Predict the structure of DNA repair nuclease/redox regulator APEX1.
Amino acid sequence: MSKRKASLESAPKLASIFTKKVKKLAQADDGSQKSWKFVCWNVAGLRACVKKSDFSEILKEQPDIVFLGETKCKEWPNEIEEKFKDYSKTLVISTEKNGGYAGVGMLSKVAPLKIHKGIGDPEFDTAGRLIIAEFVEFFFVGSYVPNSGAKLVNLEKRGRWEALLTEKLKSMTMTKPVIYGGDLNVAHEEIDLKNPESNRNKTAGFTDQERGWFTEMLEMGFTDTFRKMHPEEKKYTFWSYLANAREKDVGWRLDYYVVSDRIMEKVKKSEIMSDVKGSDHAPIVLHIEF
């Protein structure tokens, strides 16, 4: 065998060794690492989403954690298993409507220290809406928050959810910083939806109560990362399928990353991936360095 041929054949092995070494340097023996990237996406039915999107834009971000909301499935589709084969996977299945309702899932390059499924109340946990994952540096809380419903019929129920969640976040942030992400089903300020006046106190997601609950959560020591980094930007994460809303950019910002105040300065990026199709929601990305 020529020296040139031997060199070419050994290149992939050297690249593999180099990649493993880089990963080892980035991640300590206790599972901690300095740089973390998150992607959260309400997929509005994961089986349908994988037929519309190849997830290439998501993978291009090289996320450490991917949280998917409204999965509506009992098991991971083969497409997800294949594309995220190096990730640990957690799926919280709804027991309502034979699993074809709500549900959330998390994909993680780093195995969590602990995982807790659900908010701890059967009124909500049958829908599969929450994952709490503990890592060395932080708690990650991924959620698909209940919608208050047409004519606000579920507003009181939503209030009970917010009270339970707020207590959990308050307790966790006293132990470790919290990164809370997902479809939080609220447009907090007028800038967060295209038509605030016609929706105020009439449409789920823009009632005084929902906005007030979100404010109360922030006042406990949390920050809306996107609004902190983009105080004047009108950008949305959800568009109705009706009336060409997405093409006209008639939308709502319903998807958020909320972090403990003490780590906001460590956030390097909080963006909306508006061009990614496959759902009526856009993915959101967060980059943080500890």
Notes: The chain has a mean pLDDT of 92. The two ends are 48 Å apart (CA to CA). The longest helix spans residues 3-26.
